[in-house]
Amino acid sequence: MRVTCKEASHLISADLDGRLGFGQRLVLRLHLLACDACVRVKAQMGFLRRAMAAYVNQDVGTVRDKPDSGKAPPDAG
Amino acid sequence: MPQIQTIDTAEFARHRPVLYKLALLQLRNSEEAEDVVQETLAAALQGAAGFQGKSAVRTWLVGILKHKIIDHFRRLRARPEIALDGMGDETDVGDFDALFAADGHYAEQPAPWGNPDAALTESRFQDALQRCLDGLPPNTARAFVMREVMGMDTDEICKELAVTATNCWVLLHRARMSLRLCLEAGWFAGESPKGHAR
After folding, report:
1. Within an 8 Å CB–CB cutoff, is residue A46 touching chain B?
2. Which pLDDT belongs to residue B195?
3. Chain B: nearest CA to A45, how far in angstroms?
4. B114 near A47, Cβ under 8 Å?
5. Facing B110 at nearest CB: one of A40, A76, A77
6. What are phi and psi of B106, to 5 degrees?
7. What is the rounded distance in angstroms from the CA atom of residue B191 to the CA atom of residue B156?
8. Most-buried pick from A56, B68, B126, B187 (CB within 10 A)?
């Protein structure tokens, strides 16, 4: 069974919620094998989860001293 | 005597801003958010002796906040005259249709984000994320924060928001698609996380 990218976006989201059955997961995996765009979307939706973890752990309103002035910039690539 | 880690009010004050942000995202009302945070900290102070540092203080407080927010929603539901916002068109699945071409592929390829995790420690990125979260419709934001921050599963979320399972997934999908697009426009496309000099 083939799905469109639009349908795949729903499967990717549902997968993050642990909602995919075996068949759906297979369908998604097959789609991802052939679709770079959806691989990217999957990575970006997964990133949102880590972004929210960082959001919760941020220190708000406690940055009295100069932030990070002594540290090396994060991997400037 | 084993030393019991104690938490004082100064320690709580450090966590208050984030608790407030989370509460505000879900309640969309500054007074109610303030009340819920207050209840959370009061409950935490009472229970502080029971906190033995098994989890991080922040995690522990967010767990208490979760219960207070759920209680708040339940109270609202018990009083239909001030019920939660209706779903409006938040569960309209057609909203992202414009992203896709007639053949079901993305009309425009999603942009590469490089190494997005490098942005996580940047406060300006957190600001961009905050703007994107603030822009989510109310129930979408609620479902997303319940899922990704409060660690609730979709069954619990559907129950507490009194929505069908399908609508619950639609909300979470909407949140993820919207945030993805918003961060792309508001951060990854403009403020290159790599080049600080633009």
Report:
1. no
2. 44
3. 6
4. no
5. A40
6. -65, 130
7. 37
8. B187
Size of interface A-B (CB pairs under 8 A): 113
- Distance, CA of B181 to CA of B192 (rounded, Å): 15
**Tens digits of per-residue pLDDT, B127-170?**
999 999 999 999 999 999 999 999 999 999 999 999 999 999 99
CB atoms B104 and A57 under 8 Å: no
Contact B97, A7 (CB under 8 A): no
CATH code assigned at B161: 1.10.10.10
Q: Which residues in chain A are contacts of B99 at CB distance < 8 A?
A: 6
Q: What is the mean pLDDT of chain B?
A: 87
Q: Does A13 touch chain B (CB under 8 A)?
A: yes
pLDDT recorded at residue B54: 66
Q: Looking at the structure, do residues B73 and B99 belong to the same domain, yes or no? A: no
Of B22, B58, B118, the CB nearest to A74: B118
pLDDT at position B11: 79
Q: Please state the domain count of chain B.
A: 2
- Tens-digit pLDDT profile for chain A (77 aa)? 789 999 999 999 999 999 999 999 999 999 999 999 999 999 999 999 999 999 999 887 544 433 444 444 444 43
Range with lowest mean pLDDT among B5-14, B21-30, B42-51: B5-14
Spatial contact of B16 and B33, defined as CB atoms under 8 Å apart:
no
A12, amino acid identity: I
Rounded (5°) CA angle B36-B50-A61:
45
> Judging by beta carbons within 10 Å of its beta carbon (0-12, 13-18, 19+), is residue B94 exposed, middle or buried?
exposed
